[in-house]
Design brief:
Blueprint (H helix, E strand, L loop, with lengths): L1 H12 L9 H24 L19
């Protein structure tokens, strides 16, 4: 009985088999990093003090009503 518990514990302690890395995983990680870098660069260029003014109200199409 003790031997089966030891065998089970040894089975749980063995490292899992490493699967081959997918090139799609690396491509996705690179795309995510590039997107984050572009978003952070946009925040740095615009900065917190940038304001976008509201455009003036457009003239009506028919000024006489």
């Amino acid at each position: 009985m003790a031997d089966t518990r030891i065998d089970k514990a040894r089975g749980l302690l063995t490292p899992p088999e490493a699967r081959g890395a997918s090139p799609w995983t690396a491509l996705g990680a690179a795309a995510l990093a590039a997107t984050g870098a572009m978003l952070m660069a946009g925040v740095m260029v615009l900065g917190p003090g940038v304001r976008f003014e509201e455009p003036a109200v457009a003239q009506p199409l028919f000024p006489n009503g």
